[in-house]
Amino acid sequence: MKRKILFIINPISGATNKNNIVEQINKLVDTSIYKEIIYTKAAKHAIELANENKSKFDTIVAVGGDGSINEIFRGLVNTNCKLGIIPLGSGNGLARHLNIPLKINKAIELINNGRYKLIDTVEINNEKFVNIAGLGFDAHIAHLFDKYGKRGFLSYAKLTIRELIKYQPIKASINYDNKSINIVKFLIVFANSSQFGNNFYIAPKAFIDDGKLNIVLVDKPAFLESIPFVARAFTKRINSSKRVNTFTTDKMTIKCNENIKVHLDGEPYSFGKQIDVKINSKSLRVIC
């Protein structure tokens, strides 16, 4: 049967110029494949588009960053419809983890080939993520960045530096594997893959298809420790930091004394005072 692929383009993701993306798709996608191309018109529009079309196409391609992927993959969990990725975001964490090329022509070569693997997805209070989620400082930045107005890595870095000194760690209780701990942490990271993006490895030993979620607990580094700490993350040595503790689990509950702000694949969400996290093993087909 002739393959049918839908390309969903987020025109505002990342800082990449997308003026010629349609031309490249039309030029490079195999002529034996039936294809359609749609632009998103607003936040969350891709969720609607993916749900409407998952039974009509055998592959839906996210043309954008991790936020675009997050919206699209939700409707594809536990279906036969595969997720394709043309990574055009600011960080491209999932694409980098899966070794999907950042060059458009090479990413389209993978899509033409059609080979895929089954990966895990994760659910938090009925919302889903596939790459990295968390609460604490990174969630704080995600909520601010959502309203910042300027996209791209430099804008994100500028905001992070501005907020780093004044941010206070979050207090929480964590229950997992019949254990209960009380913590005060700068970051509580749920890592399904190894990195946030831009090769910043928060969980270098994470596997995306092992049925386990890597939990990374980070104490706030002293000011003079910040640069060495970041250097460890870019060189896959963050686990060697005395500020970092990690463990793996397939489900957990976190409780706080105030409403919880999180990010899911970089996108800001707010919940009540409790979140329940669980992994859905090998629930998504990804071309890679």
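Second entry:
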Amino acid sequence: MALNISKDYLRLHFIVLIWGFTGILGKLIPLPATELVCYRMFWAAVGILAWALWKNKKLMLPLSAMLPIVGVGCIVALHWVTFFAAIKVSNVSVAVGCMASATLFTAFIEPIIERKSIFWIEFVLGFGIIIGLYIITQFALQYYLGIILALVSAFLASLFGVLNKLLTRRHDPIVISAYEMMAGFVAVF
């Protein structure tokens, strides 16, 4: 049990590191946000498809199942475009800091989409995030466009997270990710 918890903590920290490093790379790579996302989603689609084929995943889905997945893939693409655009017009810390608001957006979106009761603790935590964002952004008001783009990105991240949760109840997450990356690539291309 303790070994599994340690592995989970390592995975969590690795994901946080990758997320932060993604922002830094987005700032350092001179490509515009749309081109950066196009390349990123293309290579993600290739990698996930290769993984799915290696794992002998059934890739064929009925059209009725593919349409929502393609739609979520377009939301993912728009999330990444707005995230990298926020970094390009402001800086990494503003963009990543505003991404913390995804928790608050999820507190609103999830009960609406899943038709379930509201968890008030999430709103309390969200209010704390808003206070933190206010403190951070009052010193970075010259980056107002980056703040707006990052908040839109956080909303989209929350939306695709909730929608993906519904999709994974019916389909393999690897297959979903492959189609989402392909759809996002095509949408941005």
